[in-house]
Amino acid sequence: MRIAFIGLGRMGAGMARNLLRHGHQVAAWNRTPHKAQALAPAGAKIAATPAEAARDAEAVLTMLADDQAVEEVVFGPQGVAGAMQEGAIHISHSTISIALPQRLAEEHAKRGQHFVSAPVFGRPEAAESARLTVVAAGAREDIDRCRPLFDAIGQRAIVIGREPWQANVIKLGGNFMIASMLESFGEAFALMRKAGVDPNLFLEVMNGLFKSPVYENYGGLVARQQFEPAGFALQLGLKDQRLVLAAAEQLSSPMPLASLLRDRMLAAIARGQGDLDWSSATRIAALEAGLE
Amino acid sequence: MRIAFIGLGRMGAGMARNLLRHGHQVAAWNRTPHKAQALAPAGAKIAATPAEAARDAEAVLTMLADDQAVEEVVFGPQGVAGAMQEGAIHISHSTISIALPQRLAEEHAKRGQHFVSAPVFGRPEAAESARLTVVAAGAREDIDRCRPLFDAIGQRAIVIGREPWQANVIKLGGNFMIASMLESFGEAFALMRKAGVDPNLFLEVMNGLFKSPVYENYGGLVARQQFEPAGFALQLGLKDQRLVLAAAEQLSSPMPLASLLRDRMLAAIARGQGDLDWSSATRIAALEAGLE
Amino acid sequence: MRIAFIGLGRMGAGMARNLLRHGHQVAAWNRTPHKAQALAPAGAKIAATPAEAARDAEAVLTMLADDQAVEEVVFGPQGVAGAMQEGAIHISHSTISIALPQRLAEEHAKRGQHFVSAPVFGRPEAAESARLTVVAAGAREDIDRCRPLFDAIGQRAIVIGREPWQANVIKLGGNFMIASMLESFGEAFALMRKAGVDPNLFLEVMNGLFKSPVYENYGGLVARQQFEPAGFALQLGLKDQRLVLAAAEQLSSPMPLASLLRDRMLAAIARGQGDLDWSSATRIAALEAGLE
Amino acid sequence: MRIAFIGLGRMGAGMARNLLRHGHQVAAWNRTPHKAQALAPAGAKIAATPAEAARDAEAVLTMLADDQAVEEVVFGPQGVAGAMQEGAIHISHSTISIALPQRLAEEHAKRGQHFVSAPVFGRPEAAESARLTVVAAGAREDIDRCRPLFDAIGQRAIVIGREPWQANVIKLGGNFMIASMLESFGEAFALMRKAGVDPNLFLEVMNGLFKSPVYENYGGLVARQQFEPAGFALQLGLKDQRLVLAAAEQLSSPMPLASLLRDRMLAAIARGQGDLDWSSATRIAALEAGLE
Fold first, then answer.
1. pLDDT at site D292
2. Pairwise CA distance, residues C1 & C6, whole Å
3. Cα separation of B182 and B258, whole Å?
4. Which of A291, B65, C12, C34 counts the highest number of beta carbons within 10 A?
């Protein structure tokens, strides 16, 4: 397929490379051009604008940092919406609000274009090795057209429903689940430290109990208070909690635990931790226990 | 070893049976006598009072419902404290406060008796099949004396520290971690339902993400709203949150997420769910979202 | 002074009338025209667009429902920003975010126009009888020019600082204080009802303790469960909590109590109470106590 | 009347003095004897034990720090329960749990004694000048017998119900209302400080809004960060939140705001503020905003 790939950060670069490996033609664009150029040796054509990348594409894939970046790339002066052909499909992989995919679906439909939302679970290493989990929603025929692409970038694709934004609810819900686990570790480890219990022993017991690699990884970071380098920066974590709370408000579904997580991250940012790993929000529980 | 086993509920019965299988002599007592008598065919001697069971024992094991039951059995008129020989050891397996093992350690020491706290992780099936995880704390020599017993009832024993009550902090912390996971599922599922997303699809994605049998089990109960029969009754869940919050207060370590859990369980009890499974506390998130 | 008054709802109408009484010339505009026309007998000139009202004005006063309404009226195609003369002043009385007055200050400055933010405390009756409290912020000279207008609409004006948005922080903070009081009443009354205590007796004691007309008023509404007619609709109350939380996020100042209030109001809206008085958010505390 | 007065701290001393002024005979006892002896010049008879004070009394008044002190004084070896005559009445003025007055009512009834719970609102100055508010509950005839005493110590007595513990619910609810106000001030002042707004200006606006001397007093303490000397120590404030939460649990009435208050006070205690005024719990909001 002829593909435009917009957004070549750590996640996007791996995904684009896997599409090239599967024989797709890729026209790439990134705001900082050198990241796009890094894909040229692998066979990507480098575009000067999102519009140029999108012009001949059957599918436009976007993997960007936030709502604002997506809006600019889609609706801006050199945006893809104005350049995409009728019948072409936009696949949004970004972690964004539920409101924006609602608008994207409408606007693309007005132009005779198709839209699928397909956020992914997995870290940059998984993007590089095509082991992402793709969570997709959209019209059935659109999803079917996307399958070869999903197969190229991930190990599995789960189809959620007909409304593209429903896939984003799942992505936001998943991030909320991980952040909840972090807070529970934060409070439990603070309690252990006040009790004179070695956090590693508590973690060992929890690993035996939950048997989850996610608990093992993140629990280890918190037990060792190892918040640098940031796998996922706290300020991005706060952005995600803001998105989940906005979804909760739009859908009238109160989430007091998400509110707590937001307040913890906000406190951590107020205390200068914005560039540390988001697991460092657990330091607020320690702070309140008089440990810092 | 000559053992007294006090408390033969679903957990205790399995543990006592495994001690008998390992060739230990067991004198058993239970408040409702027929539960003790069920162990007679397996070789247990049935005692008329805790004191009678404890009189000749090298080790007295207690597995009881709450602080009050332990206090009665240990310090009551026919309690074990008055009957145990000097040098004998009391091993407390119950999920109790951190204050009570502190008192037990003191009182037994006054009488020349030893005390180890060794709460267990695992369900009745694991107790029956000797696959419990034992979390033990106490003086090193005391722990060493207990090892053959831990080997008989569990698949592993993790030693936490010198102070018996430290083992209880870990047990309470572990229950808090599970209850936290339940609340995160409750809020996420309510959001999914308001978004028209099938809870089972969200669960499938979470299982792929966390890869934890605990998430799989409990997530399934909440996704299916299957709160009967109760694996662990909500009113016992509330008791545990009360204990973790009491520990948090004693150790001056605030736990806002534990406070949220307590309030959720309290609401569920106010609405008549005390005998349902504790995972039914997630119904409060659904209620607040207008789903019930 | 030659004044444009934009937004003649229950609050704005009373304020505009008092400006006319003080001899100011008022050109009025309202989205639903009949509300503007109601001011004609009192001497107001009715304008067809915000721009028309603003063209000759020395001061443009806006009293609108939310950020979006202000943005349309100021920056829309027939907006006041394009019509106001150089040197004229825009006085914003609306309860809006802290981000919008920051933008208004910038945009007006670019056009050589002045900007003061002056939200008001008081209900429609106080607007009618010129007993509002005006909380104003902006450049000193600008504030001085506004004083005759503040004198016409309110009983006192308190000057907060040089940055217009600072006045909005105070307004949002004040609404947060009232909403906090409502939640405390909600939880306390639920407790009283579960204890079989007459809520009116509790209220009598609280009135003796706090001696505040605000407690007396709102406490009475909650004690009597009298949530209609709405003095201030719950959905507007939620909007204000959203604004206070957005300010908290922008200023990195976590507000867990504001988060709780938001979640309560969201639950109340999910349960169909959006058009009831915002004090009806207290029904969620009663709901959780099993009282509804 | 012949009165025994047990507990002559800052509150009790003022109350006892007013009873003497009204011509009642007072036998006084205090754990630290010199505080009782200070009442001798005013005409009090000093007793060596609670039992001695209670022996000939028609009414035994207790004003003590907490549940434990009341239990010792009433049920201890030299306690009043064993000494009071049949038909005599025990009036409990202390701020205690709702569980203890339930037990007191039962135990006194068994002995043919009467029991009224009558906690008071007001500070030591109000106790000294007989301006307390008495909140009383008990059997109607018992309340009637107490009225002359209530008239001597307070400016008004409000009768709540037939069950003595119901008066304690109101007292705890009142303390919760004040603590809630403190938290709302704490979060609002932190926001003001981050916005560069003078806290005194915010307080001025709030005083205009609420017109409450309680807001004025406590708001001033928080605005000035003046937490010493302690009018009411934080550790006593925490005790009261514990009591209100225990009442909430006993009555199955969740109070998330009370949970928040508890966690704030616990954090403040963890950070060494136990002896400061309870309004210093507001420092946690400032801490989380990065202000400390």
1. 84
2. 16
3. 12
4. C12
The pLDDT score that the predictor gives to residue C292 is 84
Residue given tokens 């005790």 in the structure block? D239
Shortest Cα distance, chain C CAs vs residue D76, angstroms: 29
How do residues A36-52 score in pLDDT, each as one tens digit? Answer: 999 999 999 999 999 99
pLDDT at D253: 98
Strand (E) or helix (H) holding C220: helix C213-223
Residues in B touching A121 (Cβ below 8 Å): 205, 208-209
What lies within 8 Å, CB to CB, of C43 at 6+ separation is C20, C26
* Candidate list C35, C45, C110, C171, residue with the active-site label: C171
Q: Which is catalytic among the residues D35, D110, D171, D211?
A: D171
A222-261 residues touching C, CB cutoff 8 A: 238, 242, 248-249, 252-256, 259-260
CB contact under 8 A, D267 and B254: yes
Q: Which of B242, B259, B264 sits opposite D263 (nearest CB)?
A: B259
Nearest CA in chain A to D286: A267
| Mean pLDDT score, B219-242 | 96
Beta pairing class for C120-121 and C59-62: unpaired
Give CA–CA dist D10/A155, Å, rounded.
Answer: 72
Residue C149 has pLDDT above 90, yes or no: yes
For chain A, give the mean pLDDT.
97
Stated as kind and residue range, the H or E segment containing C283 is helix C283-288
Is B194 in the active site? no
ipTM above 0.95, yes or no: yes
| pLDDT digit string, tens, across residues B121-167 | 998 999 999 999 999 999 999 999 999 999 999 999 999 999 999 99
What pLDDT is attached to residue C272?
Answer: 97
- Which candidate, C9, C11, C124, C108, places its Cα nearest to that of C60? C108
Could you tell me the domains of chain A?
2-162 (3.40.50.720), 169-288 (1.10.1040.10)
Nearest Cα residue in chain C from B256:
C256
Distance between CA atoms of residues A284 and C191, nearest Å: 31
pLDDT on residue B194: 98
**CA distance to C2, C234, D290, per residue, from C84 (Å):** 12, 35, 41
Q: Are D194 and C189 in contact (CB under 8 A)?
A: no
SS3 D53: helix
Q: Flag whether residue A204 sits within 8 Å of chain B, measured between CB atoms.
A: yes
Could you read off the pLDDT of B256-266 as tens digits, one per residue?
999 999 999 99
Q: How far is CA D75 from the centre of its chain?
A: 21
Residue found by looking up tokens 């704030």 in the block: D264
What's the CA gap between C179 and C95, in Å, rounded?
15
B133, B191, B202, B249, best to mutate vs chain A, most A CBs in 10 Å: B191
Give the separation between CA B97 and CA B240, rounded to whole angstroms.
9
Taking the C-alpha atoms of residue B219 and residue B225, their distance in angstroms, rounded to an integer, is: 10
CA B194-B197-B199 angle, to 5 degrees, is: 100
Report residue A99 as tokens: 């409101």
Helix, strand, or coil (residue C182): helix
* pLDDT at residue C47, rounded to an integer: 97
Residue C49: other Cβ atoms inside 10 A = 16
- What pLDDT is stored for residue B292 in this prediction? 84
Write out the two tokens for B71: 């206090």
> What would the pLDDT profile of B169-215 be if each residue is shown by its tens digit?
999 999 999 999 999 999 999 999 999 999 999 999 999 999 999 99
Across the interface, whether the CB atoms of A267 and D289 are under 8 A apart is answered yes
Tell me whether A99 touches chain C (CB under 8 Å).
no
Which two tokens mark C198? 């007459």
The one catalytic residue among A35, A45, A110, A171: A171
CB–CB of B272 and C288 under 8 A?
no
User: What's the confidence (pLDDT) of residue A292?
Assistant: 84
